[in-house]
């Protein structure tokens, strides 16, 4: 039989019980109360006593086997969940340090992503981060703790200084190609204008539209006088500079959303993302299969019951048939 054991080391307790039972059965280490000369002692071991001894040993073997937690795998439990598949594409360019959102655009965006995850615990969420380079921070996952942990660890400056929106969107599209969900969504959070990359944002949007992937675009900040910190001067006073390259490409983001059937939002304050969350929550979710658990037939009780009954039978036989006992 194909057994698995949950607590195989517990079988040692059954072995210990067997040893003590054998000691008691043969009265080892017990001084006799009556001395019988050897010539009057019966030779050999009576058949009945031998059978009772075998019954007792077998009973403890069953008990030991039961204590090991035997079980038999019966198959996989089919488990389905209803989800949307969502990739968040987050801009990590240096301009995200602008402080027109509090404490700055970058930290505000991270907080909103964590709020988003908390609002949609049923959905599978992945994260792509980009600046000059693009990188998949997290593939699609329903593990809320893992997602929040990964978001909290995001740092600026690790992917260069450019704004590569086109390639970042294309990476998100590629990650969603194998999705079985009816609704596949990309949420783009950026505060700049695409200035590097192999693909333009509109080319990436056309790729998304062909795969029926909606892109919701969110322009972060957008204040014309927004500045980013550049370090302190010789007197310890924080210095700022106007964001190089200008402000949010609102027309470009609107066009990306239009091509894919999504929507464009301008987040000029810390609350603007709530509109996006409300729209996505209305989407119909798709039922998909999730990795199920193995179903086991638990066998320990059956073997424990057999062992206990045999042990009771052996002890009753000793007392009633052999007239042994305390």
From TrEMBL:
The chain crosses the membrane at residues 6-29, 50-69. It comes from Bacteriovorax antarcticus. This is VWA domain-containing protein. It comes from the Bacteria. The keyword Flavoprotein does not apply. Residues 85-280 form the VWFA domain. Keywords: Cell membrane, Membrane, Transmembrane, Transmembrane helix. Pfam families: VWA (PF00092).
């Amino acid at each position: 039989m194909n057994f698995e054991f949950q607590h195989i080391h517990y079988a040692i307790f059954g072995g210990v019980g067997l040893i003590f039972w054998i000691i008691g059965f043969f009265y080892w280490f017990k001084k006799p109360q009556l001395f019988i000369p050897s010539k009057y002692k019966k030779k050999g071991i009576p058949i009945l006593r031998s059978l009772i001894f075998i019954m007792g040993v077998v009973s403890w073997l069953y008990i030991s086997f039961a204590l090991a937690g035997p079980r038999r795998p019966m198959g996989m439990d089919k488990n389905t969940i209803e989800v949307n598949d969502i990739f968040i594409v987050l801009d990590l360019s240096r301009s995200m340090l602008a402080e027109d959102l509090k404490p700055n655009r970058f930290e505000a965006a991270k907080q909103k992503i964590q709020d988003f995850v908390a609002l949609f615990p049923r959905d599978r969420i992945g994260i792509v981060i980009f600046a000059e380079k693009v990188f998949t921070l997290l593939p699609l996952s329903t593990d809320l703790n893992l997602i929040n942990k990964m978001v909290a660890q995001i740092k600026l400056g690790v992917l260069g200084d450019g704004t590569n929106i086109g390639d970042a969107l294309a990476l998100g599209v590629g990650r969603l190609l194998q999705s079985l969900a009816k609704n596949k969504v990309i949420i783009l959070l950026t505060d700049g204008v695409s200035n590097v990359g192999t693909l333009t944002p509109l080319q990436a949007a056309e790729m998304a539209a062909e795969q029926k992937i909606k892109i919701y675009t969110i322009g972060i900040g957008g204040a014309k006088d927004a500045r980013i910190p550049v370090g302190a001067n010789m007197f310890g006073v924080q210095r700022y500079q106007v964001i190089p390259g200008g402000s949010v490409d609102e027309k470009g983001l609107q066009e990306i959303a239009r091509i894919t059937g999504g929507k464009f939002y301008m987040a000029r304050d810390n609350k603007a993302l709530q509109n996006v969350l409300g729209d996505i929550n209305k989407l119909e979710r798709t039922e998909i299969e999730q990795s199920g658990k193995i179903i086991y037939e638990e066998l320990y009780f059956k073997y424990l019951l057999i062992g206990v009954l045999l042990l009771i039978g052996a002890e009753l036989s000793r007392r009633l048939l052999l007239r042994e006992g305390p």
